[in-house]
Every structure is written in structure tokens, then in C-alpha cells.
Amino acid sequence: MSFDTILKSGRVIDPATGRDGIFDIGISGGKITAIEPSLPANGPVTDVAGKIVIAGMIDTHGHIYQHVTGKFGLNPDMVGVASGVTTVVDQGGPSCMTLPGFRAFIAEPSKTRVLCFISAYLVGGLEGHYYPELYGPDQVNVAHTVRVARENPDLVRGIKAHAEIGGASRWGLDVIKLGKEIARGAELPLYIHLGQLWPEKEGTHIDPNELVRELVPLMDAGDVLAHPFTRHPGGFISTETGDVHPIVWAALERGVTVDVGHGSHFSFDMARQVIAAGIKPYTLGADMHGYNVKIPDASDDRSKNPFFGVAPFNLTNAMSKILYLGMSLTEVIATVTSNPAKMLGMEDKIGTIAEGREADISVLEVLDGAFELADNSGVSVTASQMIIPTFCLRAGQKFAVTSPLVPPAAHKIAA
Ligand SMILES: [Zn+2]
How far is the CA of 69 from the centre of ligand 1 (A)? Predict the structure, then answer.
């Protein structure tokens, strides 16, 4: 048997199959054709000794509807293959009206595998949902969105909506209920953003604890609660008790899952409390967009945006953070491989390293030392390990890590 590529002597960690050990992986015709402790060198060999070899990473929360969503939308391959990530899921950029553009201008030309959770709103995530008046219940069309989701199952894997005090102050939970109706009609998961997005309507005040108590019962098994660690009001920690909302536990028991959705609002203090309480995120999701990461060639007026952030991050940086917070390396890897594959209903296609699968593979390095990890609430910690991407294969094609969105490993603190 000959191969187009052999990844030699890497530590393969594959939570889907439980495999953890040193293996050679043979790739031919874009597929994984052999996984053995040692393969004959029948083809070009890439030595990955000392590296971690995992299924192609899946970022469950991207904003890559470039140009159409204004500065909010990043280049898909910069977030994807050029960052070592083989699949990126746009969360709520495209809508029922703008999905054809997403297919033609984003999904098709990208080297990265591009999917989306379609926006519940007619306009989609323009400029990161900047103008709240575009996102009320009159700006939702259930039938149209269900139809488009059903007609595009290769691209649309879920529905995106928001549960936060700004929207609730205008429309109560009406929009979320419509989002749930869309998800039911399309038979897809509903992904709910937690944490304040818009300012409250003048003269109103919404209790974020009450909002969580009303929202969570609407969610079913397979639906996703995102941003549990937000530093904004309305995350998993009750401001009344300082503990995780009891209703969140009930939801997790019936199969609702948790996506980190790191973004600019990730808080070490919140994450520490939620994880210490025993809740481990199921999927990770970097939630990078044009206002929370620095795009090298853009004129920079990001600071006016409510989601402005300065702490550098990406998917592997977020992995390093949950590793620091006490999850095992295998659990961390599951949040970007096997678990998101299930969330997307695509565990028969992606999320594992197995013979016969398309060769979507990410190669990582776990550095030992002392590294500063920071959030945007001013907390920084010193981690003893840092995960960085080395390269990836997407359907067997190799992509080096060249994205300016990957924070330099030079965040290493001198010993
Ligand atoms: Zn987002």
C-alpha cells in the first residue's frame, strides 16, 4: 500500500474511539487509509513525533460571513485552516434571505469546511446584531427560515438566537419562542447566546436571573446554551445566590449541552465557579469576530463596539484555558472534535480519526513552561501548559498555520 502522506510517530488522541498512543497515519486520495503503530515509508513522510495528532478541529462558534456582516465577519480560512482548524460553524451570520450568498461567497470558495447555524432573524447577524430594532419578533419569519434550513442540510446544522436582557426588555421571550419554533420545524438544535447583547430599553429593567429561569425550560435535548462563563449579566451563575442556577442543572440532565463561546466576554472567575460546581463544557467555540480580535490590515475603531476586546485568543488559546481550569487533555480535545461532531449531527463524517474517513486532521503542540492567559475582565493567570496549532490537513491537503489571528506563542513568560 502506498500513501500520499504519512504522519509519523505522533501521539494520536481520539476521544471518539478512545485511541491514545503513538501511531503512524497513512493518507491517500484525501482519506485516512491506515492507522498502525508503524507504517512502511511508502510515500512522503511528515515527522510529527512529540506532537499531538487529533481529528480536524471544529470551531462551533465562528463569525465568517466576511463583507456581508461588515467588519464583524472574519475571513473563513484565517479562522479555519490557516489556524489549524478544519471546520468552522458560523453562528447566526447568514439568514434565510442571505444563505445563498453565504454558500456562493463563503462556503464554496473556502478551503475550510464551512457550516452554519442559520440566524433566526430575517437579516442575520449584520455588524454583530448592532441595531436591536432589526431583531424583534416582527423581523422573524418562521416558515421561510424552516424552509431554507430544510433545503440546505449540507450547510445549515442548527438555529441561532439570543436570550439576553436587552431583547427581553423590548419583546420578552417572544423572539426566542419563534427561534424554538424554527428549530422544531427544521428538526435542528437551537443555539442560545446568553449574556447581555443590547442595552435595555429606556425605563425598563430585566432581572437576568428571571430571564434564565424562563428561558431554560424552553430548551430540549441537543439544544445548546452558549457563553456560560460570560462576564456580562445573564450567564450560569445566579447573581442572587452566587451559585449555578438550579434550572441549568435540570436542563443539562435532560441533554441540553454547553458551548463555551469564548469571545470577548469569557471570564476566568465565572469559568472557575461553573467548572468547580461540576459543569464541564461539551463544546468549545472560539467566537472570534472583527471586534474582539485585531485584524492586521483594518483601520481600527473597534473600541466603540460593545464586543470590543483586547486579550488575544483563538480556539487553541481557549483550549489552553479550559485545560488550565482542570479539564483533562482528552476532555479538552473532545470539545473540538467528537462532541461538536455530535452537536452537528455529523459524527459519521467528522470528529474522529478512523480508516475510511476524510483526512481532516489537526496537529498540535502542547508546550510546557509558564504562560500568561488573560481575559477581558482584567484577570490573568499563569498556566503551565499552552496548546498551539502546528498544521492541519483538510481532506488530505496540508495547510500551515499562517493566520495572523493565532496569538504568538511568545506569550511565554521568561522563567
Ligand atoms: Zn458570537
Answer: 12
